[in-house]
Amino acid sequence: MTNLTQAFHQIFDTSEAPRRFFAPGRINLIGEHTDYNGGYVLPASISFGTYALARKRNDQKLRFYSLNASENGIIECDLDHLSYQKAHGWANYPKGMVQYMKQEGYAITSGADILFYGNIPNGAGLSSSASLELATGVLLEGLFNLEIDRLQLIQIGQKVENNYIGVNSGIMDQFAVGMGKTNHAILLNCQTLEYSYAPMHLQDYEIIIINTNKQRSLADSKYNERFAQCRQALQDLQKELSIQHLGELSTEQFEAAKHLNTDPVNQKRAKHIVYENARTLEALEKLRNGDLHAFGQLMNASHLSLQSDYEVTGIELDTIAAAAWEQEGVIGARMTGAGFGGCAIAIVHQDAVRDFKHHLKQIYQDKIGYEPTFYTASIADGAKEVTEEEIK
């Protein structure tokens, strides 16, 4: 990694020491597409994420620079002109955070020079956008000495995603990035925002992230279509059931009422949500009991449901999952994130990791025509200010 402080001094032509902040990316261990259906999710924040270095300015100018998009140079705007602009690309995420925090009454009284650097693979489905939003949020909190309830900061991040960027995502990504805890997963009820931590005792196992290297963009994918299908399925079920979200249904209640979903596609979508929700609650118990193998079986079942009932996997993710299930030392594997490309995760015995990567690379290359990329993730803390020494 480039020395970020040095880069900051060079790009913004200053010798002033910047403040440093970090927001992680996230993986979702289980509970996929349940978040915007008022269900449960079980994410964890990871050691890959977004670094943000900043200093206050004496004027009203905001200057953004990303080492990941250096070809765009410095993107400038004024504190009074924060509306979405397509030409500003990635910088719309931090701009949206500034605008919405100001709207909430937080005193962002001057401009700032802000340098970003992310080591989350772009478009991989590991929440690079939520990481960018929360890195900006904790940066503004620190720089302007604001007292912000962490949940409110998370909700502002989701609002930026939904209203400013225009993606109908739930709150899981921002929540995991904002509330992460080392070596713990978070069980979150996306309807009530009640949450609890579950210890991840991996013992001799490691979480391997496998990037399909098929890029996907939430805004352009079929994500919004699935959102609409779930909404329609819910409306059909509400003809006889007093529910606000699909996530409120038990599997038994769904089976008794599924005839109300006369559209077979919508019925499959609803079935995935209800059964995935049940799997997520069961997964929490397995983790708390230290039963990693049973947890792995639930991961596998989750992928199969996402493949056949929710239809968001695709040949790349299915190839990885099926190949992973056949490998020695693997206790579970599934896609993670919205799907349509992006990443899968696998829990692999540390003695088997080398062979696992070798075999998977070969199988994927033969079938898809190019290689996947592997990352070993540790489960890290949520968004916070960091020291220069902590910037790895």
* Assembly annotation: single chain
Beta-strand portion reads 15-25%
Rg over alpha carbons: 21 Å
3D shape? globular
Helix content: 25-40%
Give average pLDDT, whole number.
95
- Main β-sheet: number of strands, strand sense, barrel status? 8 strands, mixed
N-end to C-end Cα span: 8 Å
**Structural class, from secondary structure content?**
alpha+beta
Order of helices and strands: HEEEEHEHHHEEEHHHHHEEHEE
Low-confidence stretches: none
Work out the number of β strands.
12
Q: Count of helices? A: 11
Topology overview:
Elements: H1 4-11, E1 19-30, E2 40-56, E3 61-66, E4 75-78, H2 92-103, E5 112-118, H3 128-143, H4 150-165, H5 172-179, E6 184-189, E7 195-199, E8 205-211, H6 223-237, H7 251-257, H8 264-288, H9 292-308, H10 314-326, E9 330-336, E10 343-349, H11 353-368, E11 373-377, E12 384-385
Parallel strand pairs: 3-5
Antiparallel strand pairs: 1-2, 1-12, 2-5, 2-6, 3-4, 6-7, 8-10, 8-11, 9-10
Helix pairs in contact: 2-3, 2-4, 3-4, 3-5, 4-5, 6-8, 8-9, 10-11
Tell me what the structure shows.
The protein has 392 residues and is of the alpha+beta class. 39% of the residues lie in helices and 22% in strands. The protein has helices spanning 4-11, 92-103, 128-143, 150-165, 172-179, 223-237, 251-257, 264-288, 292-308, 314-326, 353-368; strands spanning 19-30, 40-56, 61-66, 75-78, 112-118, 184-189, 195-199, 205-211, 330-336, 343-349, 373-377, 384-385. The strands form two sheets. Strands 1, 2, 3, 4, 5, 6, 7 and 12 form an eight-stranded mixed β-sheet that branches. It has a four-stranded antiparallel β-sheet with strand order 9-10-8-11. α2 (92-103) packs across α3 (128-143), α3 crosses α4 (150-165) and α8 (264-288) packs antiparallel against α9 (292-308). The radius of gyration is 21 Å and the shape is globular. The model has no long low-confidence stretch (mean pLDDT 95).
